[in-house]
Write a structure and sequence with these properties.
The complex is a heterodimer of chains A (312) and B (164).
Chain A lengths: L6 E6 L5 H12 L8 E2 L8 E5 L6 H11 L5 E5 L1 H5 L21 E3 L6 H12 L20 E3 L9 H5 L5 E6 L2 E7 L8 H5 L5 E3 L13 E11 L6 E4 H14 L4 H10 L4 H4 L3 H20 L6 H4 L4
Parallel strand pairs in A: 1-2, 1-3, 3-4, 4-5
Antiparallel strand pairs in A: 6-9, 7-8, 8-10, 10-11
Helix pairs in contact in A: 1-4, 8-10
Chain B lengths: L13 E5 L9 H11 L10 E4 L7 E4 L8 H5 L5 E3 L6 E3 L9 H5 L6 E3 L4 E3 L9 H4 L6 E5 H13 L4
Antiparallel strand pairs in B: 1-8, 2-3, 4-5, 6-7
Classes of the chains: A alpha/beta (312), B alpha+beta (164).
Amino acid sequence: MGAFDPRIFRLDASGCNGCDVELVEMTALVPLAKLGVSLVDQPADANVLVVTGGANFKSRPELEAAYKALQAPKIVVAVGSCAATMGIFKGGYAMAGPPDAALSVNLYIQGCPPGPQAIFRALAHAFELPTAGLEHLLEVPAAHRGHPQVDQAKCIGCAACVNVCPAQAITLEDRTGEREIRFTHQDCIFCATCQDVCPSQAISLDTQVAPWFGAKDASQSISRQPLAQCLACGGAYAPSEQVRWSVKKIAETIAMDANVQAQFERSIALCPACRRSSLSEARHAKAILTWVTREASRRPANGGVESKRSGR
Amino acid sequence: MSGTGTATGKPQDGVIVYDPRLCTGCRYCELACSVWHTGRIEIGKSRLRILFSESGPDRFAAVNCQHCDDPLCAAVCPSETIRKDAATGWVLLHAATCIGCEMCVLACPLAVPYFDQALKVAAKCDFCYGDPECVKHCSSGALRIVPKSEALTMNEAQYLSAKE
């Protein structure tokens, strides 16, 4: 597309405006005019349509009209996760998208939102823009948050990240004997909540700004953990690593004698459902807890659990 | 039953004890608990559970929070969401900071905390912040609030004497 002069018309098809802010940031960051890219304010003057947002019932007709008015070769660039999959608006009552349900999209620039550097890199790649000398504009900004990376060796498979992820970018699948945690790249909103809560500090966000060119609904496996089987019913109830981690964590805080420790380790080898539905297990459990409480009551006052707890 | 909470009148001294010999299995405690905590009769969300069997030496048992002095659930909680309240002695779970790791469900030998799949947080007994509904609605006196030292003596006799 060397001789192609991109004339861009931007349409906000009902997103949250995050991508639009990133686009404005990109136009402020990069001297687009010098690169032969112009921004126009009427679709009839444009040959490239940049769309943000997942398209709801009000904006979809606008989107279709803009596409109709577009000059050849009618290139459509979908910026952001909404424009690819409706992102966080997926399932919303007003949604009538995503945009590629109404027209054909040539380029997806995914992320929620994709940063200005990522958008520019993608456009430069697609339109073969002369970027020599502009590398300094593409440096990673300080404190940039990228995607979560998981250290398999540290992960205990507890699924806290799955439960806290507000964008449901991290999902869980329990199969026979194994738990798999998957990550959907384009749904991630870079909030770092997974990194903050991870009990074993297995997650850290990278600092990449590279655009994501993968398939728009692709997810990848980020952790696989074998599941422990309940001694009583045989059902899989928790990742083996999580059970080990819990036993270790309790041993750091609560001293048990060998007999009680053995009883406790037997109890944690049962699934919670079996523990709370068997009379004899309930009696065993209360014996452990009574022993622990008795030992604590024999300690001098204020030497208890509070002072021993270690902060994160 | 006692509405003020404890024998001595000081809430920090009170602990809920369960006497299986007095329990009739009416499960009114479970109903009252679920109504207080969820606003609905939803026995699956009761914070305590009464178990019964038709045969055997034990007819009844309760899965109820012991508000332990060294709580295993608090020891294992990575976000310090579960803490033993210093003033009252209650082991409380603050749902707003719960990360949903289910570690407490796993660690408690009684599996008292349960994981609420809809809210994606754990839930457990909170002593109804002073006046437990289960005790209030127990007509047989199987669930009672007694001073801490007395509760320990009772629990020792009931659960530890056979082994030691």
